[in-house]
Amino acid sequence: MRGEKPGVYPFTRGIYGNMYKDKLWTMRQYAGLTSAKESNKRYHSLLKQGVMGLSVAFDLPTQIGYDSDNHLAVGEVGKVGVPISSIENMDILFNNIPLEKISTSMTINATAPILLAFYISTAENQGVTSKKLRGTIQNDILKEYTARGTFIYPPNSSMRLITDVMDFCESHLPYWNTISISGYHIREAGSTVVQELAFTFSNAIAYIEAAIKKGLDPNKFGEKISFFFNAHNGFLEEISKFRAARKLWATIMKERFSVTNKKALLCRFHVQTGGSTLTAQQVDNNIVRTSIQALSAILGGTQSLHTNSKDEALALPSIDSAKTALRTQQIIAYESGVIEHPDPFGGSYVIEKMTEEFFNASNELIGKIDSMGGAIEAINNGFVEHEISSSAYEYQKNIDSNQKIIVGVNKFEDTEEDINSLQNIDPVEVKKQIKRLSTFKKTRNNIQVNESLKKLQITAKGNENIMPDIIHCVKNNCTLGEISDTLRLVFGEY
Q1: 312 near 279, Cβ under 8 Å?
Q2: Where are the domains of the chain?
Q3: Contact 107, 55 (CB under 8 A)
Q4: Are 294 and 307 in contact (CB under 8 A)?
Q5: 51-91 confidence digits (pLDDT tens)
Q6: How far, in Å, are 72, 180, 188, 441, 485 from residue 61 at the CA level?
Q7: Residue 88's CB: how many other CB atoms inside 10 A?
Q8: Which one-letter DSSP state was computed for residue 2?
Q9: How far is Cα 77 from Cα 39, in angstroms, rounded to an integer?
Q10: How far apart are CA 237 and CA 233, in angstroms?
Q11: Which residues are within 8 A (CB) of 129 and not within 5 positions of it... i.e. 6 or more apart?
Q12: At 102, is the secondary structure helix, strand, or coil?
């Protein structure tokens, strides 16, 4: 590994030769709250502060296919992200934000095709063609069944939706990353480093196989695959993990899928600092945790980074804490000097040893999943969920027994905490969101809506690509909930 260079297969030392000397990572801040209008204000504020790309957080009803006015959405509208029920909401969300210039990442899975259709339509309403859009849609449903829970449809139907998006984007959105395969949520659920890598890449293998079965070429669509990893507390461990990830993916694509296109061998990834590492106690300590984690991601060679805000263990981040989180990235980029040296820890005996150990152990676990029939079988038989749960239990047991110290939680505690300036959800804005949706449904052409949904239902029952019909529904003012319910009728629920 000592003889390896950045930008050369298997890319352990970085996917580009000069890394950040040529171009910095994209600095993102994950945001979405209360309503499209309030979230739009936050986006404009972040862009003024120097954010290079937007990352959209959606509320729970949006993630699982319910409109804001659905009785199942009560109490959840705008809580953990922005509510998007209609094209009107999406237009407001990106009002006066030039979509041809901004890269947008959307953390959405079960309803990913619908949100992508909203985004395409909003861009067209701005006069921007889909061929100019840049960004990423998470679109990674397999980890939802084991680590997060925002699934709607059974795995096979969900895989059909994912590959339809990949197929559609190949010809209509050439600069769009069609899937961001997430290890982040696997780690947040309690996995180890090795499990994060192995389960993420096993899921990726399943997506590649499904796309090939659909007739897609991994040399082409492989260029549009990206990954999403966690930056947890173990500083040296995390640097090594990111290095091992690049080597693993390049090896899998070359040896398993005979990929020859260099761009399709690259493990391009976004990193978010560890949400589960944030503490409600002594929240200022979270700034230090986030700084260390962010530095590990950069030393590990990330292409994009979100730094968590100090108050996220208690509430949605305030504008001040979000600014501090962004400034953390900017200080590392412009003041630390680490960007001058690609893979600066490469050659360290500790880092090289850990990288090789993670690579070998992850390969072994991937092999075990292969022997079960692949990721979907390992999910269906409960193997993945059991492994993550066991690791989470061990981690928590070590904290409870003080074998693992969390500053401010089980050592160096404070008896009094002074928490001020938390971001709150404005109930008035939530009511306005629901009222706006009611007006939207009353004033649209409901005959067109019903005809569009019937056409979608017919396509869903067949084998044709479903994306054009979802876009047709969006343009005819069908809501997210109506489109999701139409697909529920055909696919059922899991």
Answers
A1: no
A2: 19-31+138-396
A3: yes
A4: yes
A5: 988 999 999 999 999 999 999 999 999 988 999 999 999 99
A6: 8, 21, 21, 18, 13
A7: 19
A8: T
A9: 13
A10: 8
A11: 123
A12: coil
Residue 425 CA to chain centroid, in angstroms?
23
d(CA 294, CA 491): 41
- Token pair for 221: 């669509």
Q: Which residue has tokens 């009222």? A: 435
Identify the CA nearest to 83 among candidates 104, 68, 100, 97. Answer: 68
Tokens of 350: 């500790």
Phi, psi at 252, each rounded to 5°: -60, -50
The predicted structure's pLDDT at residue 416: 65
Give buried/exposed letters for 338-370 (b at 16+ CB in 10 A, else e).
ebeebbbbbeeeebbebbbebbebbbebbeebe
Kindly tell me the sign of the dihedral angle through the C-alpha atoms of 366, 372, 374, 378.
Answer: negative
Q: What is the rounded CA–CA span in Å between residue 183 and residue 190?
A: 11
Which pLDDT tens digit goes with each residue over 149-158?
A: 999 999 999 9
Separation of alpha carbons 351 and 264, rounded Å: 26
Residues in Cβ contact with 456 at an 8 Å cutoff, skipping those fewer than 6 apart: 466, 469, 470, 472, 473, 483, 486, 487
Residues 68 and 61: beta-carbon distance below 8 Å? yes
Q: Give me the CATH code for the 19-31+138-396 domain, please.
A: 3.20.20.240
Q: How far apart are CA 221 and CA 176, in angstroms?
A: 11
Element (H, E) at 428: helix 427-443
